[in-house]
Amino acid sequence: MKKIFLLFGLAILSACSSNIDDDEPEVLTPAEISVEVDYFNYEIDTEAMTTLMEYRMTFYNESDFDVEGYPQIYIGQEGVEDFSVTTQRYNGENPCDYLSANSSCTQEFSELRTYDEGDLQAGSGEIPVLTLVDIQYRILEEHR
């Protein structure tokens, strides 16, 4: 009889200790999104008074779950330390707004713009040269 109570007591204790482990909150690892710049080009044609900005970049979702978000591209002006413009440039729909688990997405952009005298920098009379400063992928939702 004592053996039955002892076995019953051990069963209750082991059940209680396993419930304690289940109550601990799960620590979620944030999504891992990396980016590779395939190319970035900014050209100024002073004869035609045009600028051409084009780039292609690939985003990699290295996580085991899908994510929704958007690329955020920071463009700076050459020679100006604290100048940065944030843009989400793309032609048509954003192809990288949804990244499946362990997948990649490539975004391309090309824009030819005409400029006029009002776009010239004061003092130098030239169009500012733009550079790629940073790229980030802003996650709106993780699908776990």
List the helices and strands and how they pair.
Blueprint: H1 2-22, E1 33-45, E2 50-61, E3 66-77, E4 84-87, E5 98-99, E6 103-114, E7 130-143
Antiparallel strand pairs: 1-2, 2-6, 3-4, 3-5, 3-7
Explain this structure to me?
This protein is mainly beta and 144 residues long. Helix content is 15%, strand content 48%. It is built from one helix and seven strands. The chain has one helix spanning 2-22; strands at residues 33-45, 50-61, 66-77, 84-87, 98-99, 103-114, 130-143. Strands 3, 4, 5 and 7 form a four-stranded antiparallel β-sheet that branches. Strand 3 and strand 4 form a beta hairpin. It is elongated. The two termini are 50 Å apart. Residues 2-13 have low confidence and may be disordered.
User: What is the strand tally?
Assistant: 7
User: Compute the gyration radius: what is it?
Assistant: 27 Å
Mean pLDDT across the residues is 83
What is the makeup of the main sheet?
4 strands, antiparallel
Cα end-to-end separation: 50 Å
Shape category: elongated
- N-to-C SSE string, H for helix and E for strand: HEEEEEEE
In what range is the share of β-strand residues? over 45%
The residue fraction in helices comes out at 10-25%
Unreliable spans are 2-13
Structural class: mainly beta
Helix count from the secondary structure assignment? 1
